[in-house]
């Protein structure tokens, strides 16, 4: 099969489009013929050697949609079925899994992180991670709402528990996870302040995806703008995924009793927190990791009913994965970048 892989760490130049062995499914596994695969920030981190040691050569790609091509022993699924892959892999046996918390599995992985991923014509995945794609949802839409969108869903619906009347600040609203969060917060009855790095991205979050207010964090003081918008009250929820450069501002933006929910460390993993404000204002700092199969089913159903839009920036042929990753590295995209094998 054709695949994009790397056998050494580095920039986009280490990516190679070449022949690789077609994987065979083992017990409890299926092989997927990949139709679309999303480009995620995680892919860039893995290629740069920032996620620990990988088994090289490595194939990235966590956000997969396609059709079932082959079955491993013990699997009973119709060949040719269109499916999306819930990318957070879990063991099903540990304490967390047994109580239904897939995202905190003690042996967790992400498809394409330490396992081989979907930057290829075929990928092997656990049968338990498959979710059928509704008939009126395209493969492009399905791939675009897997990892990033179910992460945003888990953050806002399951962890922060956004409710009607809340005001939510979303950082990096033009990213895959941010553009999903802008919409999901509104599905829960909240109003949104979209924060992005360019006027164009801010306008798009407002005009196309319904954010009521916008802030360009490159030229505006985010905390001061939030104070002005909220008449000094602050927001109920901050959707945080950038890390140490923004977490202090995020906490400053909260109203009393507010909560910051975070899933990322793009700008770094360590930060100081004002503990006095944390307890005196009864604030919450909430961690969220990934999303579940049920989250993916809910997201695909919302797309099917046209309650949620799959935000797609552009599609590239698989052989142009280096160009696609460069676009992400430059933060030039709005929404998801997809590859087509």
Automatic annotation (TrEMBL):
Q: Which residues form the Enoyl reductase (ER) domain?
A: 10-339
- Keywords, comma-separated and alphabetical: NADP
Q: Name one GO molecular function term.
A: oxidoreductase activity
Q: Where is the signal peptide?
A: none
InterPro entries membership: ADH-like_C, ADH-like_N, ER, GroES-like_sf, NAD(P)-bd_dom_sf, Zinc-ADH_QOR/CCCR
Matching Gene3D superfamilies: Medium-chain alcohol dehydrogenases, catalytic domain
Does the record's keyword annotation contain NADP?
A: yes
SMART domains xrefs: PKS_ER
Entries under PANTHER family matching the protein: QUINONE OXIDOREDUCTASE
Name recorded for this polypeptide: Zinc-binding dehydrogenase
């Amino acid at each position: 099969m054709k695949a994009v892989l790397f056998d050494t760490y580095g920039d986009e130049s280490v990516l190679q489009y070449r022949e690789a062995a077609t994987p065979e499914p083992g017990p409890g596994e299926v092989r997927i013929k990949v139709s679309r695969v999303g480009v995620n920030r995680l892919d860039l981190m893995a290629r740069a050697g920032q996620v620990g040691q990988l088994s090289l050569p490595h194939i990235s790609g966590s956000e997969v949609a396609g059709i079932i091509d082959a079955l491993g022993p013990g699997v009973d699924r119709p060949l040719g079925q269109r499916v999306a892959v819930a990318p957070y892999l879990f063991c099903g046996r540990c304490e967390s899994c047994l109580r239904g918390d897939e995202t905190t599995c003690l042996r967790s992985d992400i498809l394409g992180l330490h396992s081989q991923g979907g930057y290829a014509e075929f990928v092997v995945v656990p049968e338990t991670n498959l979710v059928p794609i509704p008939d009126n949802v395209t493969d492009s839409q399905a791939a675009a709402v897997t990892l990033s969108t179910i992460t945003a869903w888990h953050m806002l619906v399951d962890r922060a528990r956004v409710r009607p009347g809340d005001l939510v600040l979303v950082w990096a609203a033009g990213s895959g996870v941010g553009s999903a969060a802008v919409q999901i917060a509104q599905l829960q009855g909240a109003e949104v302040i979209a924060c992005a790095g360019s006027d164009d991205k801010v306008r798009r979050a407002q005009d196309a995806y319904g954010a009521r207010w916008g802030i360009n964090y490159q030229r505006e003081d985010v905390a001061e703008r939030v104070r002005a918008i909220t008449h000094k009250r602050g927001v109920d929820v901050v959707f945080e995924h950038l890390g140490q450069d923004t977490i202090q501002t995020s906490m400053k933006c909260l109203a009393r009793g507010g909560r910051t929910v975070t899933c990322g460390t793009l700008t770094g993993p360590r930060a100081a927190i004002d503990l006095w404000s944390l307890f005196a204002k009864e604030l919450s700092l909430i961690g969220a990791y990934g999303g579940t199969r049920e989250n993916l089913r809910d997201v695909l159903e919302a797309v099917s009913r046209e309650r949620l839009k799959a935000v797609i920036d552009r599609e590239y042929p698989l052989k142009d994965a280096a160009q696609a990753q460069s676009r992400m590295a430059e933060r030039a995209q709005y929404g998801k970048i997809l590859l087509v094998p």
